Amino acid sequence: MEDLEIQAAKADTLQVEFDRLRFSSEAALQQLRRRIQDLEVQIATVTNFPDVGPAPPPALARRLQAQVREVEAFTTERDAAHQGCQALEQSENALVEAATQLRRQVDSLQRRVTRLREERDSLQGELDTVVRERDQAVERQQIEVDRTLKARSDLHAHDQHLNSMRSSISRLEQQVGQWSSTSVATERRLAAAEQGAASTRRSRDLALHGQDDAVRGRDAVVTDYRLL
Question: Which segments does the entry list as coiled coil (predicted)?
Answer without folding.
Answer: 22-49, 85-140
